[in-house]
Write a structure and sequence with these properties.
Layout lengths: L21 E5 L2 E4 H16 L5 H10 L7 H10 L8 H4 L7 H11 L4 H15 L16 H6 L3 H4 L1 H7 L2 H12 L2 H16 L3 H31 L15 H14 L5 H16 L6 E5 L6 H15 L4 E6 L2 H15 L10 E4 L10 H6 L7 E5 H9 L15 E5 L10 H13 L4 E6 L27 H7 L3 E5 L8 H15 L1 E5 L3 H14 L4 E5 L5 H16 L4 E5 L13 E5 L3 H8 L11 E6 L10 H16 L8 E2 L4 H11 L10 E2 L1 H4 L3 E2 H4 L4 H4 L14 H7 L8 E4 L3 H13 L3 H11 L3 E4 L1 H9 L3 E3 L7 E3 L4 E2 L3 E2 L13
Parallel strand pairs: 3-8, 4-6, 4-7, 5-6, 7-8, 9-14, 10-12, 10-13, 11-12, 13-14, 18-21
Antiparallel strand pairs: 1-2, 9-15, 16-17, 18-19, 20-21, 22-23
Length: about 800
């Protein structure tokens, strides 16, 4: 297990004045440069040692800020009185470069020692040279050898000779000690050798070596940011959960005690117990990549958690990371798991961390760096977007989290929602994390997309033999069949008012009806139509325009109405399809992919309250927005399958769990889009038509522009690829909204919280009151001055109260009916 770094809060390591060389200055206090280098060296060693490359981590941590020993940098830091955590303006113009000296020192030292040492030297050097910018290109899209150019910078610009001559004996002695150890070269070469044994093509080998580079880079970034933050605000260090052995047996006991309290003798309850038992049995298996194929309503959240806790205990793992496609799934699942693992008396977020709202800006400021979460809790609930950004995103903020996915149990919920263009990137990354970093992965869904069957030369998931956790999936699906799904599509399509009438009729017949549509516009329109048709019905609306706390409250009210027998309609976007433990008497689903239709069916008669539930699939009038490419293509594939397998009658039954239909659907939607799976990019992002998979591997198109080939081993266009990468088409930013008294209080507290340590807890609270906003909507809000910065320089935004409705959530047009109150 990892060791804890020293507690600095009262250690006296920082003097009021640094008379020698300073790494940082803050409010008259100084941190010596040698102290910073030695501390970051040890922190990076600890993080990197999880995959056996601790010696390499120690060296990059030791030399990352070597250039700060130059006289120019020391004069700058003292004249400005700044912490200099980011480069001064002069550096951005290229005259004060403190990142290259350490890279050059390692490169010049290792380069003459043979081919293996040379490759290791490249890996260490690029991590150091990139530690403020994000990983740089080795070979740029135009064929330029950026790595050689950067490492060949003249001494007048990098100050290497001056910096090394000024380095203190403690730093020099540590450097010599690490170099004398044969582990520096051998530890990285051992991982590279394993990669070459595991992967059959040179392209995949190079891609995975690139992931190894990013892993080491992640260790350095997190260590550097952590040490800097703990110096800048010593008391904030107490809010940081330093790596300590997790008492998995305690958490296992809490879950087992809760599972024993679940009662009921219904067939559904019995099958959920069976699935949970299958997960417990599978947890003793060796590390690997498994699948958990369970119908919606099969209780896979707690079942997969049971696997995770027991598997982590069995193999002494560091954490469990539960990954969901939508924040709405996290809202409910995290609340359920928190109530079990953090019972009364346990401090909030000491066991479970939710990280899904992007409350700090995509471009870092000195303040936002220390507010970035680094997934340091035993159990982390996050989104697929956050995981993909950690693996492939630009800059340093997300990359610092990557090392936390080593020696971890990775549970991917609703894996079928993985973006098509990310398939090969994702597959290769998960293979790397499992095979090289000691992790395990579980792919959970009711409709497995068969990631192991895609093009193996580009990267297919390496499933463990006998990967499925449930012994008899077909029997399970048959036994959990609780509703009848009918194809109600008609020529000319359904008007919103017609869907509303059907919902009202179903509610009068079954007591409750769920309507799921593809856009917020459709949801809002049908919600209003339901209210017009029957004023006596309780009609609720759900969308991602609402913050998690708001959605949680609405779902609780809907559940309460259902439990008390009050007729209720809930109109929602697809956010309710996964993770919401709620059961309606009937459901209506606007045409979508078969997997989405199956998810809606999972909210109908979920607990077997009726003999059979009723689900209606309808085609709505109007076209989907152009931006919703995946939903539109899923619609087309589903329509093709339904047309080719249409039964007799005007509204034939759809056998959602028929494996031939599921396979046919994924063939049309998924495998027929195989050319999109390696993340194609165009000239505007790559200078030509290329793919991120290729750019992050051999980068052949760039390398071939300027023969002969470059002398170095690393050829990846890391920075160009990461700048082009977006997990979704348009990244969002979180905005804190004034929902309820607590939401308003959080905003007020953030506006008054000048001390960083206070913001740690506030930001965790604020995630429940955040709405993720797309750039177009953000521009509208900014134009109307509807968003404000909580503190100058933090990039943490909150919404003006008149733009948030208790009925619809965030409204860019404003909600004049709301009473305005100051923050």
């Amino acid at each position: 297990m990892t060791k804890s770094p020293p507690d600095r809060t009262n250690s006296g390591l920082f003097s009021e004045r640094v008379t020698g060389f300073a790494a940082h200055l803050d409010d008259g206090r100084g941190q010596s440069l040698s102290e910073h280098l030695l501390s970051v060296s040890e922190l990076t060693r600890i993080r990197a040692d999880k995959i056996g490359i601790g010696a390499a981590g120690a060296l990059v941590g030791l030399l990352h800020d070597l250039g700060k020993y130059s006289g120019d940098f020391q004069r700058y830091i003292r004249q400005s009185g700044s912490s200099a955590d980011t480069e001064p303006p002069e550096f951005r113009r290229g005259s004060l470069d403190h990142s290259t000296a350490g890279a050059q020192k390692l490169w010049h030292t290792l380069k003459p020692q043979g081919v293996h040492a040379r490759i290791v030297g490249e890996i260490l050097a690029i991590c150091i040279a990139s530690h403020h910018s994000g990983l740089i290109d080795c070979i740029a899209p135009d064929g330029s050898d950026i790595f050689s150019r950067r490492l060949g910078k003249e001494d007048a610009k990098t100050h290497l000779d001056e910096a090394w001559s000024n380095a203190e004996p403690s730093v020099i002695h540590a450097f010599d000690r690490h170099l004398r150890s044969s582990d520096v070269v051998s530890c990285l070469c051992e991982v590279i050798n394993r990669i070459y044994l595991m992967d059959s093509t040179e392209s995949l080998r190079r891609f995975n070596v690139g992931l190894l580079v990013r892993y080491l880079f992640s260790c350095l970034i997190d260590s550097d940011r952590t040490d800097t933050a703990d110096f800048s605000k010593p008391h904030a260090a107490s809010f940081r959960r330093h790596p300590e052995p997790v008492k998995w047996d305690v958490l296992v006991d809490r879950l087992e005690r809760q599972l024993k309290e679940f009662s009921g003798d219904s067939p559904v309850t019995g099958l959920r117990h069976q699935i949970s038992g299958d997960c417990l049995h599978a947890s003793a298996r060796p590390k690997g990549i498994l699948t958990l194929t369970v119908p919606t309503g099969g209780g896979k959240t707690l079942a997969s958690l049971r696997f995770g806790l027991n598997h982590a205990a069995k193999w002494n793992m560091d954490r469990i990371i539960y990954v969901s496609p939508y924040t709405s799934i996290i809202d409910q699942n995290a609340a359920v798991v928190r109530s079990i693992l953090e019972p009364p008396g346990i401090e909030f977020s000491t066991v479970l961390l939710e990280h899904h709202s992007n409350l700090t800006p995509s471009r870092e400021t000195p303040r936002s760096k220390i507010l970035s979460e680094n997934w340091d809790a035993p159990v982390v609930f996050t989104t697929a977007v956050q995981v993909l950004e950690a693996l492939f995103g630009s800059g340093t903020r997300a990359a610092r989290r990557l090392h936390q996915m080593a020696n971890a149990v990775l549970i991917f919920d609703e894996i079928q929602t993985l973006p098509i263009r990310c398939v090969h990137l994702f597959n290769n990354a998960i293979n790397f994390l499992v095979e090289q970093c000691g992790s395990s992965a579980v792919l959970c869904t009711a409709t497995q997309p068969s990631l192991h069957l895609v093009d193996k030369e580009k990267g297919a998931i390496h499933l463990t033999p006998g990967a499925e956790i449930v012994p008899d999936v077909m029997a399970l699906f048959e036994n959990l069949r609780r509703c009848e799904t009918r194809d109600r599509r008609k020529p000319g399509a359904w008007a919103h008012s017609d869907v509303a009438r059907l919902a009202v009729e179903e509610t009068h017949f079954t007591g409750s009806c769920l309507v799921v549509v593809n856009t917020k516009r459709e949801a809002l329109s049908i919600f209003r139509e339901c209210g017009r048709i029957d004023h006596g019905l309780n009609v609720f609306h759900l969308s991602t325009s609402m913050c998690p706390a708001h959605r949680t409250k609405i779902l609780a009210e809907v559940k309460s109405h259902i439990a008390s027998g009050k007729p209720v309609i809930c109109v929602s976007t697809q956010l309710i399809e996964a993770g919401a433990d709620i059961s309606f008497g009937s459901a209506i689903r606007a045409l979508a992919g078969l997997d989405s239709i199956a998810q809606t069916a999972g909210r109908c008669n979920r607990h077997g309250e009726f003999a059979v539930g009723r689900v209606h699939v309808v085609n709505l009038v109007g076209d989907l927005p152009k931006a919703l490419v995946d939903i539109r293509m899923a619609q087309q594939a589903a329509q093709r399958v339904l047309d080719e397998n249409r039964g007799p009658g005007s509204d034939p039954v759809i056998d959602l769990w028929n494996p031939s239909l599921t396979s046919q659907y994924f063939r049309y939607y998924f495998f027929d889009r195989r050319n999109e799976m390696d993340y194609p990019v165009g000239p505007e992002k790559a200078g030509r038509d290329d793919t991120l998979l290729r750019m992050l591997a051999e980068n052949q198109l760039a390398v071939g522009l300027t023969p002969p080939p470059p002398p170095g081993y690393l050829r990846q266009a890391f920075m160009t690829a990461s700048n082009a990468f977006e997990a979704i088409d348009s990244l969002t930013q979180g905005v804190i909204v004034p929902y309820g008294n607590e939401g308003k209080a959080v905003i007020g507290d953030l506006c008054r919280a000048f001390e960083v340590e206070k913001r740690f807890g506030l930001l965790r609270r604020a995630q429940r009151f955040a709405v993720n906003v797309f750039p177009r909507v953000m521009r509208e809000l900014q134009k109307d001055q509807a968003v404000h910065e909580a503190q100058p320089g933090t990039g943490i935004l909150y919404l003006d109260q008149k733009y948030y409705s208790d009925q619809f959530g965030l409204n860019v047009e404003g909600t004049e009916e709301m009473e305005f109150q100051g923050a």
